[in-house]
Amino acid sequence: MPRAASICYERGCVRRTTYRGRCEEHAPPAWEAKSARNTTRGPEQRSWERVTRPRALARDGFACVLCGTREGLEVDHVRPIARGGTWTLDNAQTLCRPCHTAKSVRDRHSR
Q1: Cβ distance 80 to 104 under 8 Å?
Q2: In the predicted structure, residue 40 carries a pLDDT above the cut 60
Q3: Which of 6, 19, 21, 22 has the largest count of CB atoms under 10 Å?
Q4: Same domain for 86 and 100?
Q5: What global pTM score does this model have?
Q6: Count of domains in the chain?
Q7: CA 23 to CA 111: how far, in whole Å?
Q8: Are residues 46 and 17 both part of a single domain?
Q9: 27 is in which domain, residue-wise?
């Protein structure tokens, strides 16, 4: 049995719903995948893995720049790509996994 027609959630609107309880006029805009990460997939990112990452590790002496450990190393963007950072060597730093996790948390909360 089909569902009964319902009216729009917007106050004063009596049109029938078409999407998530809203009529066509009040429906939310379609989601757009416009993340900086999605727009930079390409030669820059491939270059990061092949060229920039190994150079950053060598430049930093294969050690975390914050605590100096040599285990569980990752190469991090100093300024995140999503906030206007680049895929270049001057925006790369070597961090151990715990320092990288802590930096990522700080980055998320400093919006």
Answers
A1: no
A2: no
A3: 22
A4: yes
A5: 0.60
A6: 2
A7: 34
A8: no
A9: 1-31
